[in-house]
Amino acid sequence: MEIVCRAGIQVTDDGAREVHDDIVVEDHVRLFLNGGHLATLVASPDRLDELGAGFVVCEGLADAIDSVEISGRDVYVAAPVKKDVRLEVESSGGYRVLGEPGSVKSSITVTADGIRAVTAAIESDTWRRTGGVHCSVLFCDGELVTRACDVGRHNTVDKVVGHAALKGLDRSRCILGCTGRQPAGMVAKAANAGIPIVVSRAATTDRGILTAERAGLTLVGFSRGERFTIYTHPEKVPEVLEQLEKTKR
């Protein structure tokens, strides 16, 4: 990830002093699908092949990617498109493709400690240095396979999903971990990618919960330290359901 050093004046109770902070770079990336312009994204200019591939998969435009080519800040994705493209602006100012995601099919489950392991992996050196990025991680069969940081929370999901798509990983056996809030558009990305469990350090929205419920996706929010909240399809965390039953007795 590209980082620059910028000067500033830091003010505290003790007064003011000059500082030099590490600042993450924000850029514009043009995404083309099968030769036509699809969207211009505000993003961190790294891992652009995964960003392009992941955007196409996460927005439900294609299940697989034929190829990705990069020219400067232009990303050219070739893929077998399965539906028409109609974009809308999401709550964060990013783009999403209109339409409900399909149902997620997966038999995987996760333990409470597994959820905590995903949460612990989300924090990155880039976040500690800059405080200016979101981060997502992807676990497959219990192992961390990739981590991505970006100025946009949506882009971090696109990048880790793009990694999985380009590597041919079985996304139905993956768990997505995010730093960002989970409105409907973020949850829909995971559902379109076929990822059955999403763990976030942040909150969700009512439409995020509704989208996860309809898609058959397990949505976990406020995952911090030992604490987390399961909002939908808790059957994928059977250990917690057993604990809940014991509490009710």
What does this molecule look like?
The chain is an alpha+beta fold and 249 residues long. The chain has 2 domains: 71 residues, Roll (Ubiquitin-like (UB roll)), CATH 3.10.20; 137 residues, Cytidine Deaminase, domain 2. Helix content is 29%, strand content 35%. The chain contains 7 helices and 14 strands. The strands form 4 sheets. A 6-stranded mixed sheet has the order 10-9-11-12-13-14, with helices on both faces. Strands 4-3-6-5 form a 4-stranded mixed sheet, with helices on one face. Helix 1 crosses helix 4 and helix 5 packs parallel to helix 6.
Largest sheet: 6 strands, mixed
What helical percentage do the residues reach? Answer: 25-40%
Mean pLDDT comes to 92
CATH superfamily of the largest domain: Cytidine Deaminase, domain 2
Describe the strand arrangement of the main beta sheet, using strand numbers.
10-9-11-12-13-14
**Unreliable segments of 5+ consecutive residues:** none
Order of helices and strands: EEEEHEEEEHHEEHEHEHEEH
Query: Structural class, from secondary structure content?
Result: alpha+beta
Shape: globular
Distance between the termini: 51 Å
- CATH level 1 name of the largest domain: Alpha Beta
Approximate strand percentage: 25-35%
The CATH architecture category of the largest domain equals 3-Layer(aba) Sandwich
Number-wise, the strands total: 14
